[in-house]
Design brief:
Blueprint (H helix, E strand, L loop, with lengths): L9 E5 L4 E6 L8 E4 L5 E6 L5 E6 L4 E5 L5 E5 L6 E6 L5 E6 L3 E6 L6 E6 L18 H15 L16
Length: 170
Amino acid sequence: FTSDDATHPTIAVSTGHKQIRLYDTRAQQRPVQDWEISKHPILHLLASHVRPELFFADNMGNAHQMDMRTGLLTGTFKGISGAVKSLALSEDGSKLAVAGLDRFVRVFETEGMRQPLHRAYVKQRVSQVLWDWDQKDLSTEQLEEQEAEDIWESMDKAALKKSTKRKAAA
């Protein structure tokens, strides 16, 4: 679903024929918009909850950003090897997480040059990537401090014991 209007939602659909189709439930069963936008079959599609944009990935490891108002590509995310398994957009819409068959999770900026911000190798095959919107962005130092505090808080407090040794009789 690409709109928040529950009475008349619009639906974006990707096809194996390199197309993205936009359906309006008020219109008939034919698509309102039909864009042939990729050279390869489109496997994953993600609608932005912040702006009227779509993020999509094909089976060749290409991830793109498209403006739904014009139907034009606004950006391409470079550096992905192999097919993309999952896409996820951050809460503010400024970052896109991409998980691929190469077992890397990459984070890109969605504005400007769409530069890769982070890359992490995970040992398992990734099937889905999600953002934890409750966790705020923290620096590495802040995360380490928070983990250390959590460890110290979870430890049981040792009670002070009185010495039970007998005093030597003089």
